[in-house]
Design goal:
474 residues, mainly alpha, two-stranded antiparallel ribbon, 18 helices, single chain
Length: 474
């Protein structure tokens, strides 16, 4: 591989007159902003979902609190192969092998077909799953209604990830942004129709989301098979199932999915614990989660941009540049989340009041508790920026096993037990042998502060240690 060819494929590089290189932040933003907005759209979609469900009362919001992260846990576990497509596509693109990038997307699609029947089986088990956690009956009913249509669409979610992450990997992030906007608009219209007009409640909310994901898949498929993309990436000639390629997708995707399962699953357990306390703590936690998602989901867009830039740099044969451009993404994440930390600390009550109705007798209590939870959340925003920013860099390099192992230890040996200890009063929790301090929802958010601080610090250390430099391309 000759030097000029490598230089031409390096992303976000600016050559100065003296021959040195520096990061072109305009180019970084050019790749990152569509992903940033895309995930911001997802965050706003969560806000809209919660607003629509809030018209039904505090109990349905508490039901959404119980089901939201639980459904994400399994969808991200199933969807790890679709997320892995980005890393593989970025590295193949950096190598100049564009058709192989499309091949990775096809094998992510096949993974979605494999997942589809599993999603249906899990969807049908919803009532049994939520009853196991001894939640209030009205919360179980609301959660199960949402769970059925949402999990039945798991296969579509994997296909959606696979096609969207193909475009992310090859740097066509505006395509994935357009897909996200279309999905959002469909969801808003269908939420209005199913929840308010037809009165389908939580079932309507879940169904609206799954149908909207299907609309996003159709949009991506049209672009994927369009004349221009077809001629550049040979998308119609790379469809054949290759066990070796499918194995490569799963080799990277399974740790990614497990990482997401451990991460989001720990927060799902935390939300289920809070949901056991009743409607007010459950609703306040759901509102605080939705508002904090306005901070961390756009940074998840920077996470995906970092994976693309690092992956393309490694594919082009320059790991030093991968280090520099990845670190630039981390700095941008820190700047953005610092703003949200200040906002949560000073305006939590005003933000929370948007999601309640005056007719709800619990409205004032929900808003006051949510404001307190947001004040705690303000304390970990910068560490969450480190968590998301460095995780994208590590994923782009193919370094996924050690971060997953670290998350397993921190999430399930520290965060979940500490949440149980701090949330429940004696005799109130799931495990009577654990100490119990009875701090309620506030205790769970303090545990989250500890967890995210430790995780963000470790991932930054892992990135700066350079251990990822020893890995082969995905």
């Amino acid at each position: 591989m000759n030097a000029p060819a490598v230089k031409s494929r390096l992303p976000a590089v600016l050559h100065t007159p003296d021959g040195s290189r520096r990061v072109d932040y305009r180019a970084v933003v050019g790749i990152a902003w569509p992903l940033f907005v895309q995930f911001g759209v997802q965050a706003f979609l969560n806000v809209v979902d919660t607003w629509f469900v809030g018209r039904l009362g505090s109990a349905p919001i508490a039901g959404m609190n119980a089901v939201n992260f639980s459904s994400f846990t399994l969808l991200l576990l199933f969807g790890g192969s679709g997320i892995a497509v980005q890393t593989i596509a970025a590295q193949r693109y950096g190598e100049g092998r564009k058709a192989r990038a499309a091949q990775a997307s096809w094998h992510g699609i096949y993974s979605g077909l494999i997942v589809a029947p599993l999603g249906v089986a899990v969807a049908l088990a919803g009532p049994a799953i939520f009853s196991f956690f001894a939640l209030p009956p009205e919360v179980v009913a609301s959660a199960s209604d949402y769970w059925l249509p949402r999990m039945a669409g798991a296969g579509l979610v994997v296909v959606y990830f696979s096609l969207g992450n193909f475009f992310n990997g090859v740097g066509r992030t505006r395509v994935s942004l357009m897909g996200a906007v279309l999905t959002f608009l469909c969801n808003v219209v269908l939420n209005w129709l199913f929840i308010l007009e037809l009165g389908w409640g939580m079932y309507g909310a879940g169904l609206a989301t799954s149908i909207s994901v299907g609309a996003g898949v159709l949009f991506y498929a049209v672009i994927f098979f369009s004349r221009h993309i077809r001629s550049e990436y040979a998308t119609t000639r790379m469809w054949r199932l290759r066990p070796r390629i499918l194995g490569a997708v799963y080799k990277l995707g399974v740790p990614i999915g497990i990482h997401a399962m451990f991460d989001v699953g720990a927060f799902a357990a935390f939300q289920l614990m809070v949901g056991k306390l009743g409607a007010v703590p459950g609703a306040a936690t759901q509102i605080a989660m939705i508002l904090t998602s306005l901070a961390f989901l756009p940074v998840a867009g920077l996470n995906f941009a970092a994976a693309t830039l690092v992956g393309q740099s490694i594919g082009a044969g320059d790991k030093d540049w991968a280090d520099r451009v990845g670190t630039a993404c981390i700095k941008l994440a820190l700047c953005y989340m610092a703003v949200w930390a200040l906002l949560f600390a000073t305006a939590g009550g005003a933000l929370s009041s948007i999601f309640v109705t005056a007719s709800d007798p619990n409205a004032q209590a929900v808003v006051e508790l949510s404001a307190t939870l947001l004040l705690i959340a303000a304390g970990y925003q910068l560490f969450d920026a480190l968590n998301l920013g460095t995780l994208g860099c590590l994923r782009g390099s193919g370094d996924v096993v050690v971060p997953t192992a670290a998350l397993l230890v921190l999430a399930w040996c520290i965060f979940v037990p500490l949440s149980h200890i701090l949330i429940f009063e004696p005799g109130q929790g799931w495990f009577d042998f654990l100490p119990a301090y009875g701090l309620g929802a506030k205790g769970g958010w303090i545990a989250a502060l500890v967890h995210i601080t430790l995780l963000g610090s470790f991932l930054l250390y892992r990135w700066k240690s350079g251990a990822w430099r020893k890995l082969k391309s995905a």
